[in-house]
Amino acid sequence: MGQIELLSAHLNDNIFASIAGANDEKEIQATIYNIAVWLKSLGIPQWSKVLEGEDSHNVPGAIARGEVIVFRSEQTGEVAAACILQQQPSDFDYGLWGKNDPHHDTSVYLHRLVVNRKFSSLGLGPRILAWIEDGVRFEGKDRIRLDCIAWNIKLNEFYVRSGYEFLGETNGANKYQKMLK
């Protein structure tokens, strides 16, 4: 598996990207937790297992493998956003996409895209998705894959607007894919 190569460290004039290290873990985990709390406050139980302490995407392991990107404010140093970009499918991905999917070797799996609520007015979600296509390189990979809960209409519409192709539903999760340029 090749390393993630950052082609551009800047998401915008104030937000920069880097590959997360162990010293970033606590802040990234807190951002994920805070998003789960916020979703619950809206009546959206999408990440309720995070509130119970479950880490289905093994954030510490992903950080150790160099698969987590952290986006920080240049002014304050705070975590503005983060995401996991797995170059190998996890057991979760095999369950969703199928063990024998022919595109596992050429796919990057996007998980846990989170935007700190303090930075939510900056439109970072769409910018991060665009940055993943142009600001980072994955050797031997030709597509980004992601999933989201099927019943979250707003989130599903967001991915379609961002150019992701709907590839069906498995176990209550909608699957999306976008080919890299």
From TrEMBL:
Record InterPro entries: Acyl_CoA_acyltransferase (IPR016181), GNAT_dom (IPR000182)
Pfam families xref list: Acetyltransf_1
Domain of life: Bacteria
Molecular function, one GO term: acyltransferase activity, transferring groups other than amino-acyl groups
Domain N-acetyltransferase: 30-181
The protein, known as: N-acetyltransferase domain-containing protein
